[in-house]
Amino acid sequence: MFSYRHAFHAGNHADVLKHTTLIAILQHLTIKETALMAFDTHAGAGLYRLDGDFAQTSAEALEGIVKLQDLAGPVPAALQAYLDTVASFNTQKPWKVYPGSPFIIQKFLRERDKLKLYEIHPTDAKTLSGNIAQLEAGRQVAVLREDGFEGVRKLLPPPSRRGLLLCDPSYEMKTDYARVPAMVDDALQRFATGTYAVWYPIIPRPEAHDLPKRLKTMAQRSDRPWLHATLTVKSSKVHTDAQGNEVRPGLPASGMFVINPPHTLKDALKETLPFLVKALGQDSNAASSLDSGS
Length: 294
Ligand code: SAM
What we know:
Blueprint: H1 13-29, E1 37-40, E2 47-49, H2 53-58, H3 65-68, H4 77-87, E3 97-99, H5 101-108, E4 114-118, H6 122-133, E5 141-144, H7 148-151, E6 163-167, H8 176-190, E7 195-202, H9 206-221, E8 226-232, E9 239-240, E10 246-247, E11 253-259, H10 265-280, E12 287-293
Parallel strand pairs: 1-4, 1-6, 4-5, 6-7
Antiparallel strand pairs: 2-3, 7-11, 8-11, 8-12, 9-10
Helix pairs in contact: 1-4, 1-5, 1-10, 8-9
S-adenosylmethionine (SAM) is lined by residues 2, 4, 6, 18, 40, 42-44, 100-101, 118-121, 124, 147-149, 168-170.
C-alpha cells in the first residue's frame, strides 16, 4: 500500500512552483465563457494544516510558503496571485491552512465548470471527500476513489471540449514515471487541445531525468505547444554536518511540464521564477529554467 502522504510536503518549494503555475493557467482558462472541465488525477487530501504534526515533522513548508508569506515589496503578478489564494484560506498570519490543488482549482471555477478529483489512498480520499463536502459545491466537484491514470480515460474529451488536467503523482512507485507519459499520450489522442500540466521531481535517477524529455517528444510529435519550467533550491548532494552526520538534502528541485499552455504562461513565469530563486534558494545551486516550443 502507498505510504506517501502529501501532508508532510504541503507548502514546500515544489508546491510553490506547482500551484503558482496552476493558478496562472486557471486564470487564463477561466476567461473564456465556455465551460471548463478540470481533472486532478492525484488530488491528495485537499486541505492541510501548516501547524499540524505532519507539517511540523517534515518542516518542508519552512522552505516554501512560510518563507514567502512575509515578503516585502512588489512581487511578480503570478506569485502574488498564488499568495492571495493561500491567504484567502487563512484569517491571520502566520498562515495555518494550506490549500492543495483541489481547493485551488475549485476556487477559480465558475458555476458552469466542473472538477473531477482522483485519490486512491483510503485515508486521504476520505479526508478529501469530507473537505470537499464542506464546500457545498454539489455536482460541480466529484471525488473519485480510483486510479487517476485510468479514470480520466473515460472522461476525455470533455463535452465542452475545454479541459485542464493536472497530473501530480507522488512518484513513490517507479512505475509512475512510465504511467505519466502513457496517460498523456492517450489523453492527447482523445483530446489534443486539452491543457496538460505534469509535475515531476528533479532527483538523481534516470527515470526522473527522462520524463520531461519524453513529454517534450510527445508534444512535438502531436504538434502541440509546450512549456517546461524548473526550480532548484539547493544542491542534491549528500553532505556531512559539523557533527560528522550524513545529511540527505531532501527534494532539491522540481519541474512543471505543460502541454498546450496558455500563451500568457511563459511571460508570467519568466518574471516569477528568478524571483523564487532569490526568495527560496538555499545555496549556490539555486536556479530556474524556462523553455518552450510550439
Ligand atoms: N495534487 C496534490 C496537491 O497539489 O495538493 C498533491 C498530490 S500528492 C503529490 C499525490 C497523491 O496521489 C497522494 O495523495 C497519493 O495517495 C495519490 N495517488 C497515488 N497514486 C495514485 C493513483 N494511481 N491514482 C490516484 N491517486 C493516487
